[in-house]
Recover the amino acids of this structure.
């Protein structure tokens, strides 16, 4: 019997697939300027974004391929997060690549492939599909992390990411196998039906813990976070921005879908684990970030801490918890890519400014750059009126509603701790004199456009949160 | 609409300066001053239109803002916040004028920070929505952080980071408290619909109180204050002492006392000793400071101790005295910081030993300094006396708390006279140092800055009635809310009566004094 395919449901994924094919073909012709590949990526992702938004507003719901692939507002909202991240990363990448005279074709191709993988993860209604998406995304990212292959740090990052990532995938797959053993199916809703309250077989519990470990590696939750700082530091800065944004959101998309929809009857078990992990992740990430002198490592630890805030939403395990985690991920992606973009913007003749001390005196000499950086850092620290504040507030609110007061207290104290190291960069930029005169290169226009978009997004969501809050609240499965 | 205009007019100034900064320093200063004055003039409309016969909020605006979070843009003022709003709009243009020539780098950034700060502070005093309150409370940190950190003294970075972290640590807990209240308030952040009793009211009280106590600052949370005050530029110190500290005491009146009366009653025996320790300790430490600015900073710890003492007397005399003392402290400590800034601009030193005999060389400066010093000490006839007297009277009323604390606090008044007058003597009298011989007296701009403050110092001292009138009903409402607890019952009534008697007493004393002055 032929499978009936509703092409309209698959539009965003199809557009991305088409775009990556076009990029692949155009890369074959040497006569074409490679700069156009970046623009193709942006246009393709932009169309897919527009289609996703339209479908989200229309409230499209449907499943495909024997219930394996589910399109609903949840997956569409995550599509928006992924595509926004992809567009922003492409914008900050263009000048970065041409400046270093890198090969551009495979770069954009891999970014698009990874994006496709993320979209599969968010729409996966079947553990195998989630795993396929995860692998598609991860394999592309391993290559991207080691993209500057003549740079030892980049190669090391790629290798490290591959080894630990493969390890995590194995955990994840083993978890799926055990859950299949316990529930007899890998379909998400069917698992929920199969697990009735008294039947909490050890197989299921073991599978659930292995899934947590697998996701923990992918989204860099303490104690599975060790790869993140090394990879972020060694990988090309644009890729560090990319890895810290979309893939983390994709990991959480699958995390939320599987745990909330397939394993609700095990909630008592997993929510207590998630609470502990959230507290650990926030605290360890923020405390270690204080000690960093390299800005990329600092942002790496900060992004670990931010995964902890998202976990608060998951721990709350109510409707507000899910939508707050989604809103937080969106906000986090925009501000984190913005922060990495500002790092790229601070490039000098001798290379990137990677030490925090290199930023001394930028406030008066490079006001535009310092302003972008400040907006992003204040948002990461959660100061109003930025998006970061709204995100944190909403996450905390959902957890208080669920009665996890202690979790919120730990989160709130962590916010104060994090302010210390974010503000230290601001202190360095505005309040310290530079030790040596650094000559900065001119601002590339595409990078500035990317940063302006990120800054507008951060402030707009901060002042008028309803713009994104209402869609997020309408996206709970 | 009027209130929103007052709050956001300074923000308009920020945008105007950002766009027109290319026109040069004098244009930036001009815009800032015009906006500052305009805000003050518009805010006078709040005063003239204020109905003193009711305790309800006035000039209320409520508009949906983030329905998904249950929060709205809800602002309004009562007789307490009215004065703090006016104090803010009054001090800001003076600060702009005081910073006229002293900012060398990044002038436009300085003025933008100052105006942004004004919007934040006004928002805190007017917000009737807990979420909105928190947004203003936190966002006001950023401009202050830049003001101290960029334009401050030598140890400015340490001071500014300490200031921000202390405040954030406090507000982190307050955020949890706000969220917990939200779910007990029918999923709404609206302050006007909040009514107790609340579950876990003791923890909630502490969550709010610690945040405010850090801001006040109440002993032992005060250690950020000397650093921040000393390192901040003059305008920053004035705003910090004049307005920012009042956000803490305002928070106690607005949230801690009326929302959690039972917890407030139970914690009073703990808080009152801390306030008294603050009064004595602040005064003693101020006495030994070699640095003028540090001396003024520690005197703030002492003065704010009085305010907290008055608030926890929980009767009309004490709380009215506290609110009045908040204004008084804003005026006189603000003026002291301005004066210290003026002398620092001339001599580039704030060390008391570097001065002496200035009265001969700078008579106008010395005269103004004298009036402000006496106001800060609480000389009858000037503003400080009325506030402190009412606070002590309210605290002495039967049933407020143990009288020994009041006796100790009164000793603080004497200590204040000691450290202020001793400082004045060492700076103004004695032999004039050679290096100080060329110091010019105040110029016209500086006199213009000081005169309005002096006017109010004398006005409140001689005729505080218009000030007390406007706040009477609102304070009365707070008093009834904080005394609704059945346990107090009769005792509460008696406190009310006693304190009313005490109030009449104050007014009588005032009248007698005026008559005496008239006779002379």
């Amino acid at each position: 019997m032929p499978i009936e395919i509703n092409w309209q449901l698959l539009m965003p994924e199809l557009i991305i697939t088409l775009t990556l094919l076009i990029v692949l073909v155009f890369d074959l012709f040497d006569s074409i300027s490679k700069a156009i590949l970046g623009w193709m990526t942006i246009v393709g992702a932009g169309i897919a974004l527009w289609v996703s938004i339209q479908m989200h507003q229309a409230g499209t719901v449907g499943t495909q391929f024997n219930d394996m692939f589910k399109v609903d507002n949840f997956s569409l909202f995550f599509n928006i997060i992924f595509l926004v991240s992809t567009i922003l990363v492409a914008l900050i990448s263009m000048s970065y690549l041409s400046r270093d005279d890198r090969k551009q074709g495979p770069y954009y191709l891999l970014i698009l492939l990874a994006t496709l993988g993320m979209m599969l993860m968010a729409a996966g209604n079947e553990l195998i599909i989630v795993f396929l998406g995860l692998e598609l995304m991860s394999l592309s990212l391993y290559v991207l992390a080691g993209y500057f292959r003549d740079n030892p740090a980049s190669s090391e990052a790629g290798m490290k990411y591959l080894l630990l990532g493969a390890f995590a995938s194995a955990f994840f797959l083993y978890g799926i196998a055990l859950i299949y053993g316990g529930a007899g199916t890998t379909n998400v809703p069917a698992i929920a039906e199969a697990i009735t309250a008294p039947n909490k077989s050890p197989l299921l519990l073991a599978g659930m813990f292995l899934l947590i470990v697998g996701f923990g590696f992918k989204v860099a939750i303490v104690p599975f976070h060790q790869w993140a700082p090394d990879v972020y530091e060694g990988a090309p800065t644009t890729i560090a921005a990319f890895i810290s944004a979309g893939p983390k959101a994709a990991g959480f998309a699958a995390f939320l879908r599987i745990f909330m929809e397939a394993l609700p009857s095990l909630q008592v078990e997993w929510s207590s684990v998630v609470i502990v992990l959230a507290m650990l992740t926030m605290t360890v990430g923020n405390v270690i970030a204080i000690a960093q002198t390299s800005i990329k490592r600092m942002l790496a630890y900060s992004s670990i801490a931010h995964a902890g805030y998202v976990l608060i939403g998951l721990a709350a395990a109510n409707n507000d918890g899910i939508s707050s985690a989604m809103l937080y991920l969106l906000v986090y992606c925009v501000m984190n890519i913005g922060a990495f973009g500002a790092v790229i913007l601070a490039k000098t003749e001798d290379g990137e400014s990677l030490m925090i001390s290199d930023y001394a005196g930028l406030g008066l000499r490079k006001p535009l750059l310092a302003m972008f950086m400040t907006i992003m850092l204040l948002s990461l620290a959660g100061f109003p009126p930025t998006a970061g504040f709204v995100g944190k507030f909403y996450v905390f609110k959902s957890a208080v509603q669920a009665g996890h007061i202690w979790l919120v207290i730990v989160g709130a104290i962590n916010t104060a701790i994090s302010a210390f190291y974010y503000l230290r960069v601001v202190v360095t930029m505005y309040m310290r004199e530079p030790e040596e005169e650094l000559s900065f290169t001119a601002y590339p226009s595409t990078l500035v456009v990317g940063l302006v978009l990120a800054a507008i997004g951060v402030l707009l969501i901060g002042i008028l949160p309803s713009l994104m809050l209402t869609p997020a609240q309408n996206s709970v499965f | 609409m009027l209130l929103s205009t007052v709050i956001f007019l300074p923000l308009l100034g920020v945008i105007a300066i950002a766009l027109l900064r290319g026109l040069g320093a004098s244009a930036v200063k001009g815009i800032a001053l015009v906006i500052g004055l305009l805000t003050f003039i518009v805010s006078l409309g709040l005063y003239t239109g204020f109905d003193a016969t009711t305790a309800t909020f006035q000039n209320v605006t409520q508009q949906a803002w983030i329905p998904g979070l249950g929060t709205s843009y809800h602002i309004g003022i009562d007789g307490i916040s009215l004065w703090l709003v006016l104090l803010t709009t009054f001090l800001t243009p003076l600060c702009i004028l005081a910073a006229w020539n002293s900012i060398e780098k990044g002038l436009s950034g300085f003025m933008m920070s100052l105006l942004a700060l004004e919007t934040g502070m006004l928002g805190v005093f007017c917000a009737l929505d807990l979420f909105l309150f928190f947004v203003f409370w936190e966002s006001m940190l950023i401009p202050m952080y830049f003001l101290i950190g960029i334009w401050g003294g030598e140890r400015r970075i340490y001071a500014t980071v300490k200031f921000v972290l202390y405040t954030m640590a406090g507000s982190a807990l307050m955020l949890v408290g706000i969220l917990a209240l939200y779910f007990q308030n029918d999923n709404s952040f609206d302050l006007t619909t909040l009514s107790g009793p609340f579950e876990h009211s003791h923890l909630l009280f502490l969550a709010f109180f610690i945040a405010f106590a850090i801001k006040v600052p109440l002993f032992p949370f005060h250690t950020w204050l000397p650093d921040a005050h000393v390192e901040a530029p003059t305008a920053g110190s004035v705003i910090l002492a004049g307005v920012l500290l009042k956000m803490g005491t305002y928070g106690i009146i607005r949230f801690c006392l009326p929302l959690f009366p039972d917890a407030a009653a139970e914690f009073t025996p703990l808080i009152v000793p801390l306030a008294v320790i603050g009064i004595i300790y602040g005064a003693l430490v101020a006495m030994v400071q070699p640095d003028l600015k540090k001396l003024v900073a520690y005197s703030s710890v002492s003065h704010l101790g009085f305010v907290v003492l008055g608030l926890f007397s929980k009767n009309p005399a004490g709380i009215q005295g506290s609110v009045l003392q908040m204004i008084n402290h804003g005026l006189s400590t603000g003026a002291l910081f301005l004066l210290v800034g003026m002398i620092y601009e001339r001599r580039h030193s704030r060390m008391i030993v570097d001065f002496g005999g200035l009265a001969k060389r700078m008579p106008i400066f010395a005269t103004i300094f004298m009036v402000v010093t006496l106001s800060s000490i609480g000389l009858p006839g000037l503003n400080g006396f009325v506030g402190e007297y009412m606070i002590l009277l309210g605290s002495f009323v039967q049933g407020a708390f143990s009288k020994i604390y009041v006796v100790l606090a009164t000793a603080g008044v004497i200590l204040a006279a000691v450290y202020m007058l001793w400082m004045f003597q060492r700076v103004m009298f004695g032999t004039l140092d050679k290096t100080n011989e060329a110091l010019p007296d105040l110029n016209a701009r500086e006199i213009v800055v000081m005169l309005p403050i002096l006017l109010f110092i004398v006005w409140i001292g001689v005729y505080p009635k218009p000030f007390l009138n406007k706040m009477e009903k609102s304070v009365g409402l707070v008093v009834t809310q904080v005394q609704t607890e059945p346990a107090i019952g009769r005792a509460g009534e008696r406190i009310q009566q006693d304190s009313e008697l005490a109030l009449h007493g104050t007014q009588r004393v005032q009248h007698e004094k005026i008559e005496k002055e008239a006779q002379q």
Remarks:
- The longest strand of chain A covers residues 62-64.
- Chain A has one domain: 7-473.
